[in-house]
Amino acid sequence: MSLRDHLIARIDVDGPMSVADYMNECLLNPKYGYYTTRDPFGAGGDFITAPEISQMFGELLGLSLAQSWLDQGSPAPFTLAELGPGRGTLMADLLRATKSVPGFHAAAQIVLVEASPTLQAAQQQALAGYPVQWQDTVTDLPDQPLWLVANEFFDALPIRQFLRDGKDWREKRIGFKHGELTFGLGPLSSQAALNHRLDDTQDGDLVEICEAATPILASIAQRITQYGGAALIVDYGDWRALGDTLQALRNHKPADALTDPGQVDLTAHVDFEVLAQVAQSAGCAYSRVTPQGVFLERLGITARANSLAATLSGATLETLITAHQRLTHPQEMGNLFKVLGLYPNHATPPPGLNA
Ligand code: SAH
After folding, report:
1. Is residue 343 a contact partner of residue 284, using CB atoms and an 8 Å limit?
2. Which of 326, 289, 291 is nearest to 305 (CA)?
3. How high is the pLDDT of residue 139?
């Protein structure tokens, strides 16, 4: 049995499935899921993420969080959380960079939210020597101040896709026809969650919603509002999304989303407007959505690169220069990736971000 066989059997019983159900099965099926069964990062994997490109990424995010913790009076204890930590590289760089912030490590209770047992094992290795706890979901984070980081986490959450038809919508679904998994459309239905999109869309436009993001964000924002803290959310996407952003990647190249379920990475762009609104409803302030390149430059990535460069030469120096460019240049990750900060209404945004 493969994931494909499992999906076909499921469609046979229940009928065509939503894109969200499909993504969920492909990424996190306990036996066959993409994340559950492998470590997909790096040059030999399917894609590379900012913390895997350079140590500077995790270091600067860590210093922004630590400064925000100092700005709010250094509360102790507090939760230092990461959502979807991948190989654990970001958290390892963050912890190394904040070692000399007085009291920060002593007060931090490190919690990693990770659904994949394979990646939990990689994180355990990367963070050996640190007292780390794992949780499957955000909803049971401790009731105390929370400083949190999430890089390329929200883009891995399942989305549903709807095609506008008059004042109603048809959901895009995945069925099985002529021996292949294929996209189709469900029946006309009204969607209360999409009422606000009737103003800025036309017949035939495709809109995505990520239902899984709402309770996660609400739970983070409630803690920050009630106990203090901040969150840095970094991802592909923009303020209000339009169009089909479901993307499959294999071996660093675009792939077909339906051909080899469970063998390719699936992501969708993040709609930062929705995240900001959920945060606001929970009483939390949010920053401007800021391009990653601008954010890292404000935090001093060029100075950090120069100081690292002083100790390097030859190929390692070239790698550093390329990494700096990749993370910040508007035509590379600098503009495609955005940063959203959450913080209490009475506090200042984490460094690198503006209100
Ligand atoms: N932040 C890392 C990895 C990004 S990939 C980096 O930047 O390198 C997405 C990560 O989120 C993986 O660790 C994946 O296993 C995890 N993940 C995906 N969906 C999840 C979910 N619903 N709950 C918890 N973790 C999830």
Report:
1. yes
2. 326
3. 83
Q: Which H/E stretch holds residue 260? A: none
Residue with the smallest CA separation from ligand 1 atom 14 is 84
pTM of the predicted model as reported, rounded to 2 decimal places = 0.97
User: What token pair was written down for 221?
Assistant: 């924002």
Q: How far apart are CA 51 and CA 88, in angstroms?
A: 9
Q: What pLDDT was estimated at residue 291?
A: 98
How many other C-beta atoms can be found within 10 angstroms of the C-beta atom of residue 214? 17
CB of 92 within 8 A of CB of 126?
yes
d(CA 348, CA 355): 8
Tell me which residues of the chain have a pLDDT lower than 70. Answer: none
- Per-residue model confidence (pLDDT) at position 11: 98
Ligand 1 site, CB within 6 A? 27, 35, 41, 49, 51-52, 84-86, 90, 113-116, 119, 151-153, 156-157
Nearest alpha carbon, ligand 1 atom 21: 115
d(CA 133, CA 113): 9
Q: Which CATH class is domain 50-158+211-343?
A: alpha beta
CA distance 317 to 323: 10
Domain ranges for the chain, please list them.
3-28+160-208, 50-158+211-343
Cis preceding linkage at 77, omega within 30: yes
pLDDT at 140: 86
* Beta pairing, strands 253-255 & 337-344: unpaired
Q: How many angstroms does the Cα of residue 153 sit away from the middle of ligand 1?
A: 5
Q: Residue 6 corresponds to which amino acid?
A: H
Give the pLDDT score at 43. Answer: 73
List the residue whose alpha carbon is closest to atom 16 of ligand 1.
Answer: 84
